Amino acid sequence: MNALSLNSKLIGAYASCGDLGSAELVFQRTANPNIFAFNWMISALAFHGYPEKSIGYFSLLQQSRTTPNKYTFPIVLKACVGLMDLNKGKEVHGMIYRMGFELELSVANALIDMYGKCGNLEYARLVFNLMVERDIVSWTSMIYSYANMRKIDESFILFEKMRLEGIRPNDFTWNVMIAGYARKGDCDTAFILVSKMSKEGLTPDLVTWNAMISGYVQSHRSTEALALLQDMLDAGVKPNEVTITGLLPVCGLIDSACTGKEIHGLAYRLELFANVFVASALIDMYSRCGSVEDAWNVFSSVPFKNVASWNAMIGCYGKHGKVEHAIKLFEKMQHEGVLPNEVTLTSLLSACSHGGVIEKGLKIFWSMEEFYGIRARKEHYACVIDLLCRVGRLDETYDIIKDMPIEVTDSIIGAFFSGCKVYARRDLAENMAKDVLQMDLKKPESLVALSNIYAAEGEWENVENVRNVMKDTGFNKMPGYSVSAAILLKSGSSQGNGSR
Fold first, then answer.
1. Which of 8, 80, 246, 423 has the smallest number of Cβ neighbours within 10 A?
2. Which Pfam families match (predicted)?
3. Which comes out higher in pLDDT, residue 445 or 287?
């Protein structure tokens, strides 16, 4: 056996055992490595989560005198998926075409997979259509590509066509279809497919059960979601953290802390209670069910907390009017070296708003970028505007809205109009109405709000002007008559504050 062949076998042995360091060392000491050595390195690095290094070895292969073979390209395309690099995938496809490997079954399947996962369905389907031979992997890859892009109807057409051509779907194909319908919210079709799958002697996998449960929860079908959990347990499938976090919102929907505690108990028995994502979901669940003490017990028992855990507990305190607790927890979070994010500050500002803690809330808002490196977003502006409107500081609110460096949303304008109604500031409401079109709020809701203002005063010429603006900007929806601004101006005219 020559040295080159021996080195290739050594590289393969190390790579297959996951000893990438030793495999690389032998590769580097090999003069003119052959295609088997290259394939082992490209494959091992892609498989173990180093797609960039995998592509690096492929580039090295291209620079060498060694020629890639049909086994090289599926591995390289897998690395392209790992990097989500569509351009590199297209470059590799060009090389495949030039070398005549495009009709190789394994290579074509890898191309479909790469294009599908990188979001280019057109190219994936083109490769699929040009194949002279297709196997279950080809069909499933194409079906998955459509399902992954939420085009489940196209997936179903292919699924049925595959069966008509005599190719029996495997468990992965079934799972792709079921999960796709569940994610779309069509739980009834998903459940029918589960029954058909079972008749063929196959059972859903964990991912599919989780998708089904999540689909039922998102469709507010709480009873069925809970029943699915029991079916899952009866089938011998062990729930994971995704199952628990997906199911816990049910308890908020049905306002049942008792059900939440049962799921909490299941998480404890499965030893998932210390998982930070499960803990955050439990805190949020107890918060929605009004059990602040239980939320705190979960929070305090988690050994490793991430920012989501802190955010959930701060949000819980804020939602239930315990503003001082929320502020103290925020300070403790910083003391423990956990950096707040946008959600943290939104939760804190919301707590200050609902609790009427004005100056502290304003101090946090105005120091966001300086102290925390977070630029205020529309959610933060909405909180501080709500905060000021609640206590009647509407002149200040008006100035903030006019100076906002980001898009002013309809909800912000709506909050301002509501504040003007409560504190009888018709003058500011009229000023804001005049500013709306100048502030780039040319969206249907804003224009409807403005139309309602004029309609409440019987200014039909101005209503017609707004309708014309809507037509000019491509919005044809007729203005409604339900925004609080209309009520504001109607009541304001009788109070006489700023009346014409």
1. 423
2. E_motif, PPR, PPR_2, PPR_long
3. 287
